[in-house]
From TrEMBL:
GO biological process: NAD+ biosynthetic process
Family, per entry: Belongs to the L-aspartate dehydrogenase family.
Natural source organism: Serratia fonticola
Residue span, Aspartate dehydrogenase domain: 157-211
Stored SUPFAM superfamilies: Glyceraldehyde-3-phosphate dehydrogenase-like, C-terminal domain, NAD(P)-binding Rossmann-fold domains
Record-linked NCBIfam families: PRK13303.1-3
Entry annotated with the keyword Endoplasmic reticulum: no
Entry protein name: L-aspartate dehydrogenase
Molecular function via GO: aspartate dehydrogenase [NAD(P)+] activity; NADP binding
Aspartate/homoserine dehydrogenase NAD-binding domain: residues covered: 36-107
Gene: nadX
C-alpha cells in the first residue's frame, strides 16, 4: 500500500487534504506515518473520517476492498478501486452495487496497467463475442504467487503459459497479480466469459498485457490492444536516475 500511495501523493497539487486509511490493523500505523512524513492523517476505519472527501482511492488490496468498500459507498462517497480482483467475489460486487444505488455512492473501476477499456466497453455494446487476455511477466514478477506451485520458475527456459481459465478464477487465485484480468472482465463480457492466460517469460523484464476482443455481429471484427510496462520496483529505479 505505502509504495503506491506515496506515488499518488507525490503527484497531488499542494493544498489538497489527504487522509490515508491504515486498514490492515493498528500494527502498521507507525510505519505508515513514517512513510508519509506527516503529510496525511492516518485512519483505521472510514467512520473515523469527519470530512466529506471528493474521492476515496483504494491503493491497498483486495482484502481492503472486501472489508471496507461497502462502508465507504454507504456514506455516499466515490470509491475508486485499483484492486479490481476483489469484485471476482460476486456477492461482494452485488453488495457494493446495491449500496451505491441505495446511498448514492459510486464505485469506479480504474484501468490500472491496461489500456483500451473505453474501446472494449464500446465493443460490448456492439455485440462482443469473446475476450481473451494474456499476462506475460518475468519469473521474478511471479515469485511469491501461486505460480510457484504450478510451474518451476527456476527451470523455465522459454515463454510458457502456466494458467488458463476465467477472469474470476485468475483474480481469485492470483489476488496480487491478476487485477488486470478482472478490470478487463468488468469492462467487457464479465468474470466468467472472459478468458485469461498467465505466462512466464524468462527473456523479458517487462510486464505485457495484450487483450483481444472479437464480435461476430460485425463480420468478425477484432479489437486488439497491448500495454507493456516495467514492474513497480524497476519503474522507481528508473525515475530516480
Amino acid at each position: 500500500m505505502a509504495a503506491m500511495a506515496k506515488e499518488v501523493l507525490a503527484r497531488l497539487p499542494e493544498g489538497v487534504w489527504q487522509s490515508v486509511g491504515s486498514w490492515h490493523g493498528k500494527r502498521i500505523m507507525p510505519r505508515s506515518d513514517a512513510a508519509f512524513a506527516g503529510q496525511v492523517q492516518a485512519l483505521t476505519h472510514p467512520d473515523q473520517c469527519t470530512e466529506q472527501p471528493d474521492l476515496v482511492l483504494e491503493c491497498a488490496s483486495q482484502q481492503a476492498v472486501a472489508e471496507f468498500g461497502e462502508a465507504i459507498v454507504k456514506r455516499g462517497w466515490r470509491l475508486a478501486v485499483i484492486s479490481t480482483g476483489a469484485l471476482a467475489d460476486a456477492a461482494l460486487q452485488l453488495r457494493l452495487q446495491q449500496a451505491c444505488t441505495r446511498y448514492h455512492g459510486r464505485l469506479i473501476v480504474l484501468s490500472g496497467a491496461v489500456a483500451g477499456m473505453d474501446g472494449l466497453a464500446s465493443a460490448r455494446e456492439g455485440g462482443l463475442d469473446s475476450v481473451t487476455y494474456q499476462s506475460s511477466k518475468s519469473p521474478a514478477s511471479w515469485r511469491g504467487s501461486p505460480a510457484e506451485k504450478l510451474i518451476n520458475l527456476d527451470a523455465v527456459s522459454e515463454a510458457q503459459v502456466f494458467f488458463e481459465g476465467s477472469a474470476r478464477e485468475a483474480a481469485s487465485m492470483f489476488p496480487a497479480n491478476a487485477n488486470v484480468a478482472a478490470t478487463i472482465a468488468l469492462h467487457g463480457l464479465g468474470m466468467d466469459a472472459t478468458r485469461v492466460r498467465l505466462q512466464v517469460d524468462p527473456h523479458t523484464q517487462r510486464n505485457t498485457h495484450p487483450l483481444t476482443g472479437v464480435w461476430a455481429s460485425l463480420a468478425s471484427s477484432r479489437l486488439s490492444c497491448a500495454a507493456t510496462r516495467w514492474p513497480a520496483t524497476r519503474k522507481r529505479q528508473r525515475w530516480r536516475r
